[in-house]
Write a structure and sequence with these properties.
Layout (H helix, E strand, L loop, with lengths): L3 E4 L2 E4 L4 E7 L10 E6 L6 E6 L5 E3 L7 E6 L4 E6 L8 E7 L13 E6 L1
Length: 118
Amino acid sequence: QVQFVESGGGLVQSGGSLTLSCVPSGDMIFQMYNMAWYRQAPGKQREVVASISTDGTTSYSDSVKGRFTISRTNANSTVQLQMKNLESADTAIYYCNIVGQLKSTKYWGQGTQVAVSS
């Protein structure tokens, strides 16, 4: 079964930047799926951060709008999340998955940890 593999997390200071990347671990027709980045902060529910449709239309949560940019490259089955002007509230484990999987157990990978120090 396909799982997603996230990378690029780390520890940054407030105001810093990071770019996360995600690829599927197995075969999937990547370009057929709307993709999303999710995050789960300590003690909180997993939430959707940003999404990108098959035609490239993007959507963002209010908390990251104007600071994060989601993109995809179908040729190498990659979805990225550029994060700028990071805040301590952005500290979380970040995951990518197909849109609509928030309540599902399917396809989730290990995520990548982002820690923002103030």
